[in-house]
Design brief:
With about 400 residues, this protein is of the alpha/beta class. It contains 14 helices and twelve strands. The protein has helices at about 5-10, 15-30, 50-60, 75-85, 105-115, 130-135, 160-165, 185-200, 240, 255-265, 275-285, 290-315, 335-345, 375-385; strands at about 35, 95-100, 120-125, 140-145, 170-175, 200-205, 230-235, 250-255, 325-330, 350, 350-355, 365-370. A seven-stranded mixed sheet has the order 2-8-7-6-5-3-4, with helices on both faces. α3 runs antiparallel to α11, α4 runs parallel beside α11 (about 275-285) and α5 packs parallel to α6. The N and C termini lie far apart (about 55 Å). The model has no long low-confidence stretch (mean pLDDT about 95). The chain binds pyridoxal-5'-phosphate. Pyridoxal-5'-phosphate binds near residues 178, 208, 237 and 245.
Length: about 400
């Protein structure tokens, strides 16, 4: 019998990191010591207070059972308190906070909850690939908003043709941004909210990197804007904030109706987050400052190593005060993938080709800071040999 997969799966572009992983595997099989600056996944352990809370929670058999669909009320309350403390935003823990199994899960399901076949979804290009693929899976149509250097990589939603705006239900935004590392200020978010309210479009702001910021820069929440709760939701992730990528925990905050729709959808798909992980997340959020301060120092140091090197070899990059990424302009006559391939072949260093995040990512590669300092230094030595 011929097994035929569904068209919606067949039409999906391969997930970027799955491809990179395969390439690395191939190289490793050949005995090559590959250093990956491709994936944003912290190498430092999760905070000990998180591990301790998990161990404690595991002892209670009640926690081994199905979790509540909408998360522990204690987790929702802690998330609401964190939003208040961090951004000064008041949220109702039962109505305006919804735990998700990592923000990827929430982002991937949001279009299913909001979009009917043929509806448009405004998506940043380049962008975290899930915005567009989740739109395609829910039979919506992604409309790509190019992020350009000259616009500080801010999506120009006002340039979206009015015919598309009329058919749009949802817009994804993400600042501090992956992959460009660009940031947005409250004035920008104010315009977003005004425009979205005028045009009846739900804004889903992905704030996964809100805590990875440097020097004096503090990333805002879109929910700080007056009236934002009428049209916006914001995804938060414990992954990068607390070095908890493997735990799969985050939350979405904001408009009650959107959260209700997403929550209703999710009750039919998943059964919530394992309670001990929620207790671990609670401990992490309550004590986030120490971890965040430590990680900022680590990333800042690594960032300096890389940017000093880029300056030295004359490669241009976006100067940003946030994220674990550096967005680098590829040398003339290279494409993002030819340059990434060259670095892998000649230096055994993996960087992400910008075009993998969308057509407007062509001409760039993304370097991630989530490797140990010693490996980063080694990568720089190798890259310097190739690029001198
Ligand atoms: C912009 C952005 N949003 C969301 C995620 C997913 O994070 P989580 O681990 O919470 O699913 C990532 C992960 O790299 C990301 O870069």
């Amino acid at each position: 019998m011929e097994i035929r997969e569904a068209r919606r799966v067949k039409n999906l572009p391969p997930y970027l990191f799955a491809q990179i992983d395969r390439l690395i595997e191939e190289k490793k099989k050949q005995g090559v010591d590959v250093i990956s600056l491709g994936i944003g996944d912290p190498v430092e352990p999760s905070p000990s207070i998180v591990l301790k809370a998990l161990k404690e929670a595991l002892k209670n058999p009640e926690n081994h059972r199905y979790p509540s669909y909408f998360g522990l009320s204690e987790f929702r309350e802690t998330a609401a308190k964190w939003m208040k403390k961090r951004f000064g935003v008041d949220l109702h823990p039962d109505k305006e906070i919804l735990p998700v199994i990592g923000s990827k899960e929430g982002i991937a399901h949001l279009p299913w909850a909001m979009v009917d076949p043929g509806d448009y979804v405004l998506v940043p290009d380049p962008g975290y690939p899930v915005y567009a693929t989740a739109t395609i899976l829910s039979e919506g149509i992604p409309y790509l908003m190019p992020l350009k250097w000259e616009n500080h990589f801010l999506a120009d939603f006002e340039a979206v043709p009015s015919g598309v705006v009329k058919k749009s239900k949802l817009m994804f935004l993400n600042y501090p941004n992956n992959p460009t590392s660009a940031t947005a200020d409250l004035d920008y978010f104010k315009n977003v909210i005004e425009w979205a309210r005028k045009n009846g479009i739900v804004v889903a702001h992905d704030n996964a990197y809100s805590e990875i910021t440097f020097n004096d820069y503090i990333a805002p929440s879109i929910l700080q804007i007056e009236g934002a709760l009428e049209v916006a939701v914001e995804f938060h992730s414990l992954s990068k904030t607390l070095n908890m990528t493997g735990w799969r925990i985050g939350f979405v905050a904001g408009n009650e109706k959107v959260l209700n729709a997403l929550g209703r959808l999710k009750t039919n798909i998943d059964s919530g987050i394992f309670n001990p992980i929620q207790y671990a997340g609670i401990a992490g959020l309550r004590n986030y400052e120490e971890t965040v301060a430590r990680m900022r120092r680590i990333y800042e140091n690594r960032k300096k190593l890389i940017t000093d090197f880029l300056d030295k070899v004359g490669l241009k990059y976006w100067k940003s005060g946030a994220t674990i990424y550096i967005w680098v302009v590829v040398p003339e006559k290279e494409t993002s993938s030819s340059f990434a391939r060259k670095l892998l072949e000649e230096a055994a260093v993996v960087v992400s080709p910008g075009a993998a995040y969308g057509n407007s990512g062509e001409g760039y590669v993304r370097i991630s800071l989530t490797v140990k300092d010693e490996r980063l230094k080694e990568a720089i030595v190798r890259l310097e040999r190739v690029l001198q």
